[in-house]
Amino acid sequence: MKVLDRKKNIFKLSQGEYVAAESIESKYLQCPLITLIWVHGNSFESFLVAVVVPDRKALEDWAAEHHLTDDYKSLCQNMKLRGFELLKAVHLEPNPFDIERDLMTPTFNLKRPQLLKYYKDRVEKLYSEAKGGKV
């Protein structure tokens, strides 16, 4: 038996795959361009979306020298993410998650239900755009 994550942080995608959000977030956080990330999925969708708070300085430095596609591909390959663990749509958030907006606990853990409520419209738009729909 292997413990992946807290029960409340594990969800099932429409094709039946179980996803441990914190495990995936920790892999993406190894990218020096990412300060914070919240990965979301649900049983009605077959893919994941995320809200990412980039490290502004690192992003500016990196953008001067590289293309995002190359780094994204190498991150996914090096972390050995399975197909359903890859993010299909991402919203870049300029403001870090914080306690004041009730998006994090005092110990700086993500409050997933509050994040979903706060970013509900954005998450719906990410899913729609990723499926090729108009919003």
TrEMBL record:
<dbReference type="GO" id="GO:0004467">
    <property type="term" value="F:long-chain fatty acid-CoA ligase activity"/>
</dbReference>
<dbReference type="GO" id="GO:0016020">
    <property type="term" value="C:membrane"/>
</dbReference>
<dbReference type="GO" id="GO:0005783">
    <property type="term" value="C:endoplasmic reticulum"/>
</dbReference>
<dbReference type="GO" id="GO:0010143">
    <property type="term" value="P:cutin biosynthetic process"/>
</dbReference>
<dbReference type="GO" id="GO:0010025">
    <property type="term" value="P:wax biosynthetic process"/>
</dbReference>
<protein>
    <submittedName>
        <fullName>Putative long-chain-fatty-acid--CoA ligase</fullName>
        <ecNumber>6.2.1.3</ecNumber>
    </submittedName>
</protein>
<keyword id="KW-0436">Ligase</keyword>
